Amino acid sequence: MKLVFFRNRNNKRELLSVLSTNLSLSDEEIIPIYGNRWAIEVFFKSTKSLLKLGSEFQGRSYDMTISHTTIVFSRYILLEWLRRNEKDDKTLCELFFRLCDDIQDMTLSTALQSLMGLFVEHLNTVGSQKSTLLKIQLQQWIDAQASFVKALFSQLGWES
Q1: Which residues on neighbouring strands pair with residue 5, listed in sequence order?
Q2: Hey, is 35 helix, strand or coil?
Q3: 84-102 burial by CB neighbour count: b if 16+ within 10 A, else e?
Q4: How many CB atoms lie within 10 A of CB 72?
Q5: Is 158 helix (H, G, I), strand (E, B) or coil?
Q6: What is residue 100's three-state secondary structure?
Q7: What is the biggest distance separating any 2 CA atoms in the chain, rounded to whole angstroms?
Q8: Which residues fall within 8 angstroms of residue 119, CB to CB, at 6 or more apart?
């Protein structure tokens, strides 16, 4: 076993420790790995205790369990996106905060705009009749979304 000590970012007097059984890893490699694992632990604790994963419904079928898990995970993703969109410096865990500087995530709005751009590009390659029907359905979907999603696609234009 290998014990790695490092300073708490928020309290320089406090030392944190991580225990590793992989002796081939350096101290610098152990800390980010632990941070990633800790983020997963925090995710599951949050979904179980705050978002009621596993306790919100009493279904016993596989499909109901998958549906419930999907809904709870979607809630978590939305809440995390809103937190990041607000540029709130509060985090679920100090180690997670340290690793956020290293990870450059694509924002949800950028991802949605990119995905929509690829979809519109693909629409132009299908037949005219299918393309018209898909454009109508896509516009109906956009119109049914929340205002912040509508704003992402305000510049969406169809090529003839």
Answers
A1: 17
A2: helix
A3: eeeeeeeebeebbebbeee
A4: 19
A5: coil
A6: helix
A7: 68
A8: 138
Q: Output phi, psi for 8, to 5 deg.
A: -70, 130
Q: What is the pLDDT of residues 51-66, one digit of tens each?
A: 888 887 777 888 888 8
Assess contact for 149 and 109: CB atoms under 8 A: no
- For 99-151, how does the pLDDT look when each residue is reduced to its tens digit (9 = 90+)? 444 444 556 677 777 777 777 777 777 777 777 888 788 788 878 877 777 77
Which position has the token pair 């180690």? 95
Quote the radius of gyration of the chain (alpha carbons, Å).
Answer: 22
Q: Which residue has the higher pLDDT, 110 or 73?
A: 73
What are the tokens at 45? 């604790």
Look at the block and give the residue holding tokens 């014990």: 3
| DSSP state letters, 127-139 | -HHHHHHHHHHHH
The tokens for 100 are 């956020």
- How many residues appear in the chain? 160
Residue 106, both tokens: 């694509």
Across the chain, mean pLDDT equals 77
Report residue 73 CA to chain centroid gap.
9
pLDDT of residue 24: 93
Is pTM beyond 0.70? Reply is no
